[in-house]
Design a protein that fits this description.
Helix content: over 70%
Shape: globular
Oligomer: single chain
Number of helices: 13
Distance between the termini: 20 Å
Structural class: mainly alpha
Largest sheet: none
Radius of gyration: 19 Å
Number of strands: 0
Strand content: under 5%
Order of helices and strands: HHHHHHHHHHHHH
Length: 292
């Protein structure tokens, strides 16, 4: 597989993740942990079929348990927080806050050994959090207290995925097939917690079930497999930068489908968050000694 082809495959994850908010809204009223269980079961089954077809199931035996534990907790934590956030706050606003994770990855990476926090990182962080503040205030200086729990969960979601992504550098590499165990482990962990703390509520419409299946096949399934291929075999800098398109595409899809009304505050928040991430990325990619 060529580097260019792997990069294009990885970019497919960005397109799939832009559908995450739309399908999550469509899966209402399914509670978050039950949604985790259903979606990751589908994603894991999809991976098992792929591994069986490619003869890579045997590779799963050679992956250390710490890698499996780390991957399961990362996927479980991020999606439990994300699904909960979109149940407690408007989808577009909560989704934009959750998509601060690309910016946080770039900013926090400047604090790692051998890296340096630059002016562009700080400017990008200011822009990004200004976008988040614009969402929380609804662009008019008014504080929307009823949505605060959802906004907090969305911010925790961004912190979880950025922390997971940075810490994964210290865990070591694993074959793409290991994503199968990540998905199935997340489903297995979510089910008993759901039974303990949530009421089982399943969709009563075809649209609700279609949304759950869409989540499991795409944003919570195939996306993780193609992203793994992209970051390991493609151009990770291009993929990292392209991930900043996700919040813009996600918001646009919600507006076009009528889930979220077109509001200027959403446009400016998306511009600030995406622009801040690009500014921070430029500070990292443009430093001396960085290959392009």
């Amino acid at each position: 597989m060529t580097r260019t082809r792997a990069t294009l495959i990885g970019f497919g994850a960005v397109l799939l993740w832009s559908l995450l908010a739309l399908f999550t809204v469509g899966s209402t009223p399914t509670p978050p942990l039950l949604l985790n269980t259903l979606c990751f079961s589908i994603g894991g089954l999809l991976g098992l079929i792929w591994c069986a077809a490619t003869g890579t199931l045997g590779a799963l035996r050679n992956v250390p348990l710490r890698v499996y534990a780390f991957g399961i907790m990362g996927l479980f934590g991020y999606h439990a927080l994300y699904f909960s956030a979109l149940r407690l706050a408007p989808a577009a606003e909560a989704g934009l806050i959750a998509y601060l994770w690309p910016l946080l990855i770039v900013v926090f990476s400047g604090l790692l050994p051998g890296e340096k926090l630059r002016g562009g990182h700080i400017i990008g962080a200011v822009f990004g959090f200004a976008g988040a503040a614009l969402i929380i205030s609804n662009g008019a200086g008014s504080f929307q207290a009823q949505y605060l729990p959802g906004y907090i969960l969305a911010m925790c979601c961004a912190l979880t995925w950025s922390g997971y992504s940075l810490l994964s550098r210290r865990i070591g590499t694993a074959p793409t097939a290991s994503v199968v165990v990540f998905c199935l482990g997340t489903a297995a962990l979510s089910l008993p917690i759901h039974l303990m703390f949530e009421q089982t509520v399943l969709p009563k419409t075809g649209l609700g079930w279609a949304s759950i299946i869409g989540l499991g096949l795409g944003p919570v399934g195939l996306a993780f497999y193609v992203w793994d291929i992209g970051v390991k075999r493609g151009d990770i800098q291009i993929l990292g930068t392209s991930s900043y398109l996700a919040p813009l595409l996600s918001t646009l899809i919600l507006v076009v489908t009528g889930v979220t009304p077109a509001k200027p505050v959403l446009f400016w928040a998306a511009v600030l968050i995406t622009g801040g991430a690009l500014c921070a990325a430029r500070a990292s990619y443009g430093k001396p000694g960085r290959t392009r």
